[in-house]
Amino acid sequence: MPDPIILPEGPLVSTGRLKLAGVVAAGLAVLVVVVGLVTRVSADQSQAAWTQDQSIPTLNLAKIDAGGERQLVLPGDVQAFNTAPIHARVGGYLKHWYVDIGTPVKAGQLLADIDTPDLDQQVLQARADLATAQANQSLAATTSKRWQGLVAADAVSRQDADEKIGDLAAKSSLVNASRANLNRLLALESFKKITAPFAGVVTTRSTDIGQLITTGSPSDTALFTVADQRKLRVYVRVPQNYSALVHKGQTADLTVPEFVGQTFKAVVVNSSQAVGPQTGAELVELSLDNADGRIKSGDYAQVTFRLTSAATTTRIPVTAIQYRHNGPVVALVGRDNHVKIRPVIISRDLGSSVEVGAGLSTSDRIVDNPPESLVEGDLVRIAGALVQKAVV
C-alpha cells in the first residue's frame, strides 16, 4: 500500500476522490451546456410562434340588419289646406273692421268696410254720363225714324238718311260704353266690403280704423289672412335614396312639440315626381284631418315614415364595403377564420349604411373596415372572439 500524500497545511485527499470530483464537474458542465441549448431552442421556437401569431390580423365584425321595416324621420312644414291673404281692391280709408285674429268666419262674412269718396263720385259721374248717352241715343233714334219716312217720300236723299242711321248706331255704342263703365265702377264699389272667401279662421289683421288703403302696388299689405285649418297640408322633402319607398296612399305618423307623446296620422296624397337640384330630395305632400283644430298652420312637425325593404335585402355599414377593380366587395370570415372575398350589388345607398341585394345573410361574419391588403384565404382573428348576432 503506497504511502499517503501529505499536502502542506491541509487535509489529506486520495487520488480516487480527485477523479470522482473531476467526473462530477465535467457532468455538471455538460448539463449546463445542454440546459442552455434546450432553453435557447425553446426561446427561438416561442419567438417564432409569437411572431407568427402577431402576423395574424385582428379584425372587427360589421353589424348586419335584416331587410324589413324601418323608420325614416323627417321635418315637415304644416300649412292650412286653403290660405288667402286678403288685399283691398279699391283705395280709400278703412271705415270699420269686424273680426280680429283667431275669429272663426264663414264664407262671405263681412270682415271690414272701406270708405271710398273718390270712387263714389266716379259712380255718380258714370251714372250722369250714361243718362246723357241714353238721351242722345233716344234723340238719334227719333231723328233716324223721321228721316226714314222722308226717304220714302223722296223728300231727302238716301245719303242723308244713312247718316242719321249711322249717328243712331254711334249713340247706341256710347250708351253701351257708358253702361259698361258704370258697371265696372259698381263692381269696384262692391269691394268696399271686405268679405271672407271661405270658411276658416282669421290668422292675421294688418289694418285699423282710419288707415289709408292703397292698391296697385306690389308692396301692398294684406288687410287680413283667412286660413281653413280643418284640413292641413304637410310638406316633406324626402331624400332621393328613400323616394322610391314613399308612395301615394302611404300613412305616416306626425308629431308636434306642443303635444308631447301624441301622434297624428297623415296620408301621402301627392309628390312632385322630381328631385330638387339644390336639395337632392323629392317634395311630398301629405294630408291631415284637423277637424278639432289642435294642430296649427305653420307648425313645425316631425313626420315618421315606416319604410319596408325586400325581405331578401340586408343592410350593412358603408365601412364594410371595399371597391376593387371588379366592383364593390365584402370580406367574409369563415368558420375556420379564413377570409373569403365576395362581390355584392348595392341596391340602395342610405348614407351611413347600404342595402345589399340577395347574397348575404344575417348569419354571415362580415369584416368592418377591412384593410386593403386583405386577400382571399388570409387567416384572421376576430376581435374579442365575439359571435355576431343578427338584428331583426
Question: Would you mind describing this structure in some detail?
Answer:
This protein has 392 residues and is an alpha+beta fold. It has 3 domains: 58-67 and 312-385, conserved putative lor/sdh protein from methanococcus maripaludis s2 fold (Beta Barrel), CATH 2.40.420.20; 84-195, Helix Hairpins; 228-308, Elongation Factor Tu (Ef-tu), domain 3. It has helices spanning 15-54, 117-152, 158-190, 240-243; strands at 58-61, 65-66, 69-86, 92-97, 104-105, 110-115, 193-195, 200-205, 212-213, 224-239, 251-255, 264-275, 281-289, 300-308, 314-317, 322-324, 327-333, 339-343, 346-349, 353-356, 367-368, 381-382. The strands form 5 sheets. Strands 3-10-13-12-11-14 form a 6-stranded antiparallel β-barrel. It has a 4-stranded antiparallel β-sheet with strand order 2-15-20-19, with no helix packed on it. The protein has a 4-stranded antiparallel β-sheet with strand order 7-6-4-9, with no helix packed on it. The protein is rod-shaped and about 190 Å long. It starts with 14 loop residues before the first helix and ends in a 10-residue tail after the last strand. Mean pLDDT is 82; it is low at 386-392.
